[in-house]
Amino acid sequence: MVATAERPGIVLGFRFAARTREIYGTKYELFGPLDRPDAALVTPEMAAKARALVTVGSLPVDDALLAALPHVRLVCCYGTGYERVDLAAAKRRGVAVTHSPGANAPDVADMAMALLLSSTRNVARADRVLRAGNWKHRVSGSFGIPAGLGGGKLGILGLGAIGELIARRARGFDMEIGYHNRRRRDDVDYRYLDSAMALAEWCDYLMVACRADASNRHTVDAELLRALGPRGHVVNISRGSMVDEAALADALEGGVIEGAGLDVFENEPAIHPKLMVQERVVLTPHLGGGTDRAVAAMTDMVVRNLEAHFAGRPLVSPVPMP
Questions:
Q1: pLDDT by residue (tens digit) across 67-90?
Q2: 171 included as an active-site residue
Q3: Known catalytic membership, residue 223
Q4: Of 41, 104, 133, 239, which is the most exposed, with the fewest CB atoms less than 10 Å away?
């Protein structure tokens, strides 16, 4: 079927679920998905007919890709992130960019707490012990006695939509909440720390939930992990670039911190080899926003942005341009 003014063409920059593709395909002619975000993979038909690109913010959208899609005037990021979209190039080419802020926040917050519990209570390690047939006697002490969450200090790096929902959940565990943000918030009563380092020095458990960009790459580095301390745990549900994975692996191996939980990685789907052999880290393959509810919400926001764009209406959730 040929893309027309009534049925615009959109390029899929990601292998979305079948139901999501089906929804996009009701009103738009679909091209792709691209195996990778590479201008060399754009076919002449895509270049001629595509009017929008739907992708995820953890995949690059650079000037070369936008140049290869000369009629594209909208990039929709499925999910809250847009850190690898070249906003300067988009602005120069007259391309608007949208994302889906808050659409998956409750589900990612749930995943954050799941990782924190798994890390602090040795859930994954204990599971491996049982599956290996090694429950010959009481083994809980072999992991060390956990501190427990109740009464502990949770430091949230980034108190946005996801961070705030993490804080609400953590209060149900009777935790004390502190946070660091680019700006102090006057609408919450949590303790504010004026830097990531100060937050790490204060808290027992560090939750990384901020928006990632070039300015905060490897915020969680060797120095910050030392500040977190030998009973500390770090959980990252933001973006993999926030954590220096080699430094984290070294910190776990050397007992600088007690444990970690990661749902995101700097070079997904590749995982740092030193993390792969660490018993004290829980690893999950970017599952945080992968629930029915979250997928439906993110798909709906993309559709609403596409509809607004092609109808000439204001976009629902535009990304601020530089």
A1: 999 999 999 999 988 999 999 999
A2: no
A3: no
A4: 133
Nearest 5°: phi and psi at 103? -65, -35
Paired tokens of 131: 């599956």
Positive or negative torsion for Cα 67, 95, 101, 13: negative
Give the mean model confidence (pLDDT) for residues 300-315: 98
- 63 CB contacts (<8 Å, ≥6 apart)? 86, 89, 93
H-type alpha helices, 147-291: 161-171, 196-202, 222-228, 245-253, 273-276
| 170-200: b (≥16 Cβ within 10 Å) or e | beeeebbbbbbbeeeeeeeebebbeebbebb
Tell me, yes or no, if 45 is annotated catalytic. no
d(CA 290, CA 295) in angstroms, rounded, equals 6
Q: Which residue out of 51, 84, 272, 286 is catalytically annotated? A: 286
pTM of the predicted protein model: 0.90
Q: Of 51, 211, 239, 272, which one is the catalytic site residue?
A: 239
